[in-house]
Amino acid sequence: MFEGQMVFPQLLAFLPRRILDNCVRRYHGNKRVRALSCRDQFLAMMFAQLTARESLRDIEICLTAVQSKLFHAGFRGPIKRSTLADANRLRDWRIWQDLGLALIDRARQLYAADPLPSELQTAAYALDATVLNLSLTLFPWAPSQRDKAAIKLHTLLDLQGNIPCFLRISGTRTRDCAMLDEVPVEAGSLYVMDRDYNDYGRLHRLHQAGAFFLVRAKSNLTYRRQRSQTVDRTTGLRSDQIILLKDRRTFRKYPDRLRRITFFNAETRRRFVFIGNQFLLSAADLVELYWRRWDIELFFKWVKQHLRIKHFVGNTPNAVRTQIWIAVSTYVLVAILRRELRIERTMSEILQILSVTIFEKTPIKTVLNEIQFQSQVRQNHKQLSLFDL
C-alpha cells in the first residue's frame, strides 16, 4: 500500500514554493492576514477548478467534508466562504498574474521542442479573443449591450504546446485589433490572426518590429500584383502572389509589399484569402499554420467547459481577474505535470481523473497512466453458479 502523499500535494510539488512566495511578497499579499494566507486562498481556488465547484458555499461545504485530510493536502487552516470572498475581493490580482506568467515560462521551455515548420526559426502564436457573458445585475461594471454584461478574454497562444502566454481582460466594446498595441512582440516570431485583427497600421508596426504575421484578408481588399508564384492546385492552393496595397489610405498605413495566398477548402466549399509578410515559408506551410490557429478556439472551448470561469465566485473586477488567473495557473500546472511525467493522456482526461482522485494516497503517475484492465478467468469454482449461462 502506498503510504506517501495524496494526489493534491503531489500536483502542487510541480509549483516551486519559492515562486509563489516571491509573488505574494511582491504585492504584500499576506500583510495583516490572520485567517487565510495567500497559499490557502490559492489552494482553495485551485480545488474549485479541479473539482468543478461553482460557488463559495460549494467550496466551503466540500472542503469541510474532508477536513481531516486538509492539513496533509497542504492547507494550514479551515476555509470559510466569507474569508475566501474577502481575499478574492481585496488581495491584489497581480499576485496570481505573476504566478501564472512564471508557470507559463516554465511550460514553454518544456514544450519548446514540439514540431513547427523547420524554416520557422522561432515561435508561432495564435491571437484571438472570446466573450464571457455575465449578469448585468451582478456585474454592473461590465456593460455589453442594453440589458447584458460581458467581458472579453484576449489570449495569445503559443502553438508549441498550446500554452497561453498573454492574457488581457477588456470590455466587449474594445476592438480586437487594439490588442496588437499590447501584445509582446518577439522579432522573428509569427503571429496568426483572424480577420478582426486586420488593421494595416498596427500590422505595419509588427512588420517594423521584425515580426511576421498571417491574417485573413478583408473582402474589399484592393491591390496591385507584382508577381505570382506557382502553386500545387491539388493541395487546395489557388494563388501565391506578391502584392502592394492599391487604396491610397491603406497604402499610407502599410507601404511595404505583402504576400497574398488564396486557398480553397474542398470539404467546406469555402475560399480563404490570407495576407502576410512572411516570404520564406512555403504557401502550404503558412496555410497549415493558419489551421493550427483553431487550437486557440479549442483552448477557449476547453477552458469554458473544464475550468470554472463561466461561473464566477466573486462580482468585483479584482475577484474576476483573480479567478481567471488561478484558472490559467491550474491549466498550465497540469500541462507542466503532463510533460514532466510524460503522460500520454489528453489534458481533458487528466483533469477528469484529478477531479475524483485529489485526496487519494496514490502515486500521481500511477493514477494518470493508462491502465489496461484484463478480465480474469476464475478456475476451480467452489461456489456454484446461481444462474445457468
Automatic annotation (TrEMBL):
Q: Does the keyword ATP-binding apply?
A: no
Protein name, as recorded: Transposase DDE domain protein
Q: Which InterPro entries match?
A: DUF4372, RNaseH-like_sf, Transpos_IS4, Transposase_11
Where along the sequence do coiled-coil regions lie?
Answer: none
* Top-level lineage group: Bacteria
A GO BP entry: DNA transposition
Transposase IS4-like domain mapped to chain residues: 125-333
Report the family membership.
Belongs to the transposase 11 family.
Q: Which SUPFAM superfamilies match?
A: Ribonuclease H-like
Q: Which residues form the DUF4372 domain?
A: 4-76
Recorded GO terms, molecular function?
DNA binding; transposase activity
Which keywords accompany this UniProt record? DNA recombination, DNA-binding, Transposition
